[in-house]
Amino acid sequence: MRASLVQIDVDPDESPESRRGRAAAIVRTQSGSDLVVLPELWTLGAFAYDSFVSGAEPLDGPTARAMAAAARDAGVWLHAGSIVERAPDGTLYNTALVFSPDGALASSYRKIHRFGFDEGEAVMMGAGEEVVTTGPPDATLGLAICYDLRFPELFRLLTEAGAKVLVIPAGWPARRREHWRLLARARAVESQAYVLGCCSTGTHAGVEQAGHSIVVDPWGEVLAEAGTAEEVLTVELDLDRVTQVRTDLPVLRDRMLGLPEPAARTRGNATAGG
After folding, report:
1. Which of 43, 152, 155, 253 could form a disulfide with 16 if both were Cys (CB 3.0 to 4.6 A apart)?
2. Which pLDDT score is estimated for 268?
3. Is the predicted pLDDT of residue 54 greater than 70, yes or no?
């Protein structure tokens, strides 16, 4: 499977409408890929809290429509990063959207772990409650967003749900870049799965972004890593490698401590979290 991570620049002087059009154009150039991934909250900025209320949109809003068309035109699975979703009851969520090659919304995931320590996202947004996998059957994608990366319990549940590729869009700050790189490798090693971490670059409300989008294989080896400028990182993933690593070092079967069942598990549900 060929995966392309679009490390898009978030410039506060560029409007969300302009950035939507630019991102859609980049996606359309990736027709040779099977999966294309965008960062977290790339239309507004992950730290642009002042714009969350005014910039929130429903699951069929302008970003979804633009990304659905881009996925269809390119013929790719498109993980469109995340948006500030306004639910029918008015609650805001940080919600990832995944589109199939025909442009249909294949699945959505509401971020479970909200960042902010009693401010920002942590108080402005609701928490997701569903563990979500989606994507083509031979490359099951496990969905997480940014701050989720710090919580290994979620990734164990995604692995148990069959995930082979863990996809993590992010708006990670530059001052904690080494945490991003370390945790991406840790999640790959413990899950024996590919990790695709797609971060933005530029600034979100004055917060410098880490960039360094990263692809890690199931053995924990970094296959590719971006710098700090806007770029597209394209990598070939050998999905048989997941089976090989899990067979050669079968640590997952030796886990002794149980975890509570998640509130819900969904796969390929166009209204997951909706």
Report:
1. 43
2. 54
3. yes
Active-site pick, 57, 85, 146, 164? 146
Q: Nearest CA to 3 among 197, 244, 222? A: 197
Choices 3.40.190.100, 3.40.50.720, 3.40.50.1820, 3.60.110.10: CATH for 2-249: 3.60.110.10
Dihedral sign, CA of 230, 30, 159, 188? Answer: negative
Phi, psi of 57 (to 5 degrees): -150, 155
Q: Is 111 a catalytic residue?
A: yes
CA 224 – CA 136 distance, rounded (Å): 23
**Average pLDDT in the chain:** 94
* Residue tagged active-site, from 111, 130, 198, 199: 111
Which amino acid is it at 267?
R
| Nearest CA among 43, 11, 38 for reference residue 26 | 38
Q: Is position 146 annotated as part of the catalytic site?
A: yes
